[in-house]
Design a protein that fits this description.
InterPro entries: DUF3553. With about 60 residues, the protein is an all-beta fold. The protein has no helices and five strands.
Amino acid sequence: MNEILEPGMLVRHPTMPEWGVGQVQSRIGDRITVNFTNAGKQVLDGRHVSLVLVSMDT
């Protein structure tokens, strides 16, 4: 799933719901930088987490 992520897309971390919605800042290989509402900027390893895409309609 992480392969389709592009800057600007909205996501959630599947095991950290308290982080809130995050906006993808960049994806370079397996390294994904996301700015979350309640956790700020986080650099994630896409090999260990599959982010959940948030629908723009919600």
